[in-house]
Design a protein that fits this description.
Layout lengths: L2 H4 L5 E2 L2 E2 L2 H16 L6 H8 L3 H7 L3 H24 L5 H16 L1 H11 L1 H5 L4 H15 L5 H19 L1 H4 L3 H16 L1
Antiparallel strand pairs: 1-2
Length: 193
């Protein structure tokens, strides 16, 4: 049996087999951001992917399932950072590396998701995994804290907020994305020193 026969809903993008779920996530986020979550449809996502709706339904029953999957994949990317940081001493170099890794995530799919989440807060509230994500973010904030004082804990969380703000508040902050990301990193490093 060939691979195409074994997979009841294979599809190709640009003629090549791709990481299907990742591609669906990218396109879905693009559609969600452009149209708003409530106005986006599975049909539009399928059309952008160049597949039929049934092929898309093979992977996700609904756009709610799709959003939950996107959110879960991004949240799990934090687990690697958390695990790595916990295996290292609570030192400035560790905090700086956590910031670098977070910035790398923000430059990729996280940045797109952050923009979506800001514009679609109602959809985000309905996510069952939102509380798990909150716990992860608290853990990262704690890992970024330079010490266990109230001020130290605040600095860690403010550093984390700076990275998110640089992506989500472009109109309010001005400059281009590169300038905002660099400013956020400088500020975050000062807070975590």
């Amino acid at each position: 049996m060939s691979q195409a026969e074994a997979d009841p809903a294979p599809f190709r993008v640009d003629g090549r087999r791709t990481d299907t779920r990742q591609k669906i996530h990218e396109v879905a986020l693009e559609v969600f951001r452009e149209r708003g979550y409530d106005r986006a449809t599975m049909q539009e996502i399928a059309a952008r992917l160049g597949v039929t709706r049934p092929a898309l339904y093979y992977h996700y029953r609904s756009k709610d399932d799709m959003l939950a999957s996107i959110h879960q994949a991004l949240a799990c990317s934090l687990d690697d950072i958390i695990e790595w940081a916990r295996s290292r001493p609570r030192a400035r170099t560790t905090r700086y590396e956590v910031l670098r890794r977070l910035d790398e995530l923000m430059a990729g799919p996280w940045g797109k998701f952050t923009l979506f989440a800001q514009a679609n807060e109602d959809a985000m509230r309905d996510l069952s995994a939102a509380s798990e994500f909150s716990v992860r973010m608290d853990t990262v904030g704690d890992l970024l804290s330079p010490d266990r004082t109230v001020e130290g804990e605040m600095k860690g969380r403010l550093a984390l907020a700076a990275l998110f703000m640089a992506r989500a508040r472009g109109r309010q902050l001005g400059g281009n994305q590169t300038e905002r990301a660099a400013a956020a990193m400088r500020l975050a490093r000062q807070l975590c020193a």
